[in-house]
């Protein structure tokens, strides 16, 4: 069994404007580092285009129409202080959900063991009907609903180690007993949600906030104590990872001091839980990570671990 890597040039065409941290170079450096011979055995494919049906499992039609109407023919359209659309944004956003659903298809069919979707824009701040924090469609949420609707999964767990809380994913699944959302993140920090007291209508939300200055030991303790046992108890049919790498010590947007080895460790622990619960089915989708060097090296450690060679 092997690891699938999904990319697509559409991911490069979304442009937040000059000086914005969420930029096309993020996926360029990821694609470059994954060209190393260590990654020779990756199964590589281009992400399929996403469908309206896939998006509608999470976002209302009125929201998709509003994005279509806002989409500029040239220049950029500002949705909030840090979320902007360029002419390529909508195509990139549809391609990102398409890749996430394709990864779920291949993992659920056992064509591959696990998958990494290296697409942008990211997704975890996008709520049902609100674009936010560089996000338009919630890629991980669309992937989860795809596993439930198209593959008969009964339970899906989404683990989010991006340094920011995935307010969007929490919002979408707050009252959904079939999906557990678990997050480690710095707090207080954007977007402000994610306290341990936020638990969801079915005790299906698990927040394990970290403090500015925390590093590997605190992150690993949060994973061991708060996150991994809850995934195991929930016993998902597939594990989706919102893989943000902005908890890296080099990242300019936050103050958690993880290194590549911490991301590799977390990846391995999540794979172990997936092995025990769901035959190892795991789909990882890229979220944040804004220091190009820290991002590329962290993704390399994450993907090598998924491949079982780290
Ligand atoms: Zn983030």
Structure description:
The chain has 310 residues and is of the alpha/beta class. 38% of the residues lie in helices and 16% in strands. The chain contains nine helices and ten strands. The radius of gyration is 17 Å and the shape is globular. The structure holds zinc ion.
Strand percent estimate: 15-25%
Q: Which ligands accompany this protein?
A: zinc ion
Report the C-alpha radius of gyration, rounded: 17 Å
The tally of strands reads: 10
**Cα end-to-end separation:** 16 Å
Residue-averaged pLDDT:
97
What's a quick, concise take on this entry?
The protein has helices spanning 25-33, 52-56, 61-70, 89-108, 139-151, 167-173, 216-234, 260-278, 292-306; strands at 3-7, 43-46, 77-80, 83-85, 114-117, 156-160, 179-186, 205-210, 238-243, 282-286. The chain is an alpha/beta fold.
Structural features:
binds zinc ion, two-stranded antiparallel ribbon, alpha/beta, 310 residues, eight-stranded parallel beta sheet
Summarize the topology.
Blueprint lengths: L2 E5 L17 H9 L9 E4 L5 H5 L4 H10 L6 E4 L2 E3 L3 H20 L5 E4 L21 H13 L4 E5 L6 H7 L5 E8 L18 E6 L5 H19 L3 E6 L16 H19 L3 E5 L5 H15 L4
Parallel strand pairs: 1-2, 1-5, 5-10, 6-7, 6-9, 7-8, 9-10
Antiparallel strand pairs: 3-4
Helix pairs in contact: 1-9, 4-5, 7-8, 8-9
The protein binds zinc ion (ZN).
């Amino acid at each position: 069994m092997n690891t699938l890597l999904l990319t697509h040039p559409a991911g490069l065409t979304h442009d937040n404007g000059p000086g914005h941290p969420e930029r096309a170079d993020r996926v360029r450096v990821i694609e470059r580092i994954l060209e190393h011979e260590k990654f020779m055995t990756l199964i590589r494919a281009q992400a399929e285009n996403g469908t309206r049906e896939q998006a509608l499992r999470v976002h209302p039609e009125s929201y998709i129409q509003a994005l279509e109407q806002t989409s500029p023919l040239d220049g950029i359209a500002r949705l909030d202080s840090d979320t902007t659309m360029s002419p390529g944004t909508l195509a990139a956003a549809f391609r990102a959900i398409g890749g996430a659903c394709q990864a779920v298809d291949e993992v659920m069919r056992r064509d591959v063991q696990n998958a990494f979707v290296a697409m942008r824009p990211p997704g975890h701040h996008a709520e049902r009907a609100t674009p936010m924090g560089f996000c338009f469609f919630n890629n991980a949420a669309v992937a989860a609903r795809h596993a439930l609707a198209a593959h008969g999964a009964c339970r899906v767990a989404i683990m989010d180690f991006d340094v920011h809380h995935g307010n969007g994913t929490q919002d979408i699944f707050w009252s959904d007993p079939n999906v557990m959302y678990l997050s480690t993140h710095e707090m207080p920090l954007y977007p402000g949600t994610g306290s341990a007291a936020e638990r969801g209508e079915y005790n299906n939300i698990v927040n394990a906030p970290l403090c500015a200055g925390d590093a590997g030991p605190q992150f690993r303790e949060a994973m061991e104590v708060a996150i991994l046992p809850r995934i195991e108890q929930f016993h998902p049919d597939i594990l989706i990872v919102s893989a943000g790498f902005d908890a890296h010590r080099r990242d300019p947007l936050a103050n958690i001091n993880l290194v590549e080895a911490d991301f590799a460790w977390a990846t391995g622990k999540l794979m172990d839980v997936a092995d025990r619960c769901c035959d190892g089915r795991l789909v990882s989708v890229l979220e944040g990570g804004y220091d190009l060097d820290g991002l590329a090296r962290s993704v390399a450690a994450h993907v090598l671990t998924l491949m079982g060679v780290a």
